[in-house]
Design brief:
Layout lengths: L1 E4 L5 E9 L2 E8 L6 E5 L13 H4 L4 E5 L17 H14 L5 E6 L2 H11 L4 E7 L25 H7 L12 H8 L3 H17 L2 H5 L6 E6 L20 E5 L6 H4 L1 H13 L3
Parallel strand pairs: 4-5, 4-6, 6-7, 7-8, 8-9
Antiparallel strand pairs: 1-2, 2-3, 3-5
Helix pairs in contact: 2-3
């Protein structure tokens, strides 16, 4: 492993794990012996999308961020499968390679779909689930599709990208350059394939239906100003026994970027209650 410094001056250990069907880039922060938090990003982002929250979590957790296959600094092999089940499987295999026996799985947006699938696959590994602005099913999806043309993607200005992704944040939020750079780096084959498989996964069975029989503690955080998933749909997760649902007023689809302290506080209170 090699050490580098992130923007918060925390010592971040980075490594690339060679799995059977692709390489997975991993970032680790915090005490190695602390309870593990696995942070899973959404489709159009990478592990970097969690950076503003990392310093708030490392006081009590070993924070593990992965780039899903096809994203960030992970591999982009020809013919790779981007199904929900395969991406979740790789996340579990990455934790196995790191020697992690138990972790709370935290997912933002579609990252919550992967966190749910991982919990279904590996109930021995996942101790609890945290979903941040993850819609329960496709009926809750309210975003307007943006018709990107891959052949002209590199010609878009930063401002054009900001306008295109503006519904991922509350009205008037100043989208940081780092997020623009992450979005510009999207592999469009991966993006399209992942979007289709997430839709199929949610249409097959909703996340509350999947999570209810698993018996895992569940925290759902939802920005009340979300413009991609209908905020009132967060109430659907109350069908999961013991679920905690917390709305975040004044925040849109990306609480981890829009207001890290208000997002970290209930997450930390939730994980503290698991001990």
């Amino acid at each position: 492993m090699t050490a580098s410094e992130n923007t918060s001056h925390l010592a971040t250990e980075e490594t690339t794990l060679p799995l059977a069907d692709g390489e997975i880039h991993v970032c680790q922060d915090g005490p190695p012996g602390a309870p593990a938090l696995l942070l899973i990003h959404g489709t159009g982002a990478s592990a970097r999308s969690w950076e503003p929250m990392v310093p708030l979590l490392t006081g009590s957790h070993r924070v593990i961020r992965i780039d899903l296959l096809g994203c960030g600094r992970s591999g982009r092999p020809d013919g790779a499968s981007y199904t929900v089940d395969d991406q979740a499987r790789r996340a579990g295999e990455a934790l196995d390679r790191l020697g992690v026996d138990h972790a709370a799985a935290v997912g933002h947006s579609s990252g919550g779909v992967f966190a749910t699938a991982l919990t279904e696959q590996r109930p021995d590994l996942v101790t609890a689930v945290v979903l941040i602005n993850t819609g329960p099913d496709m009926a809750a999806y309210i975003a307007k599709e943006v018709p990107f043309r891959t052949d002209s993607w590199t010609d878009l200005t930063d401002d054009q990208i900001r306008r295109a992704v503006s519904d991922g944040f509350h009205e008037g939020f100043a989208i940081p350059q780092d997020f623009v750079d992450q979005f510009r780096d999207i592999d469009f084959h991966m993006f399209g394939a992942t979007s289709r498989t997430i839709r199929a996964f949610l249409d097959q069975r909703s996340l509350p239906v999947r999570l209810a029989p698993l018996g895992k503690p569940l925290l759902v955080l939802f920005g009340a100003e979300d413009r991609r998933w209908r905020p009132t749909s967060a109430a659907d997760y109350r069908a999961v026994p013991g679920a905690t649902v917390k709305m975040l007023p004044g925040i849109g689809h990306s609480p981890n970027l829009e207001d890290p302290p208000r997002t970290a506080a209930p997450l930390l209170a939730f994980t503290e209650g698991l001990r």
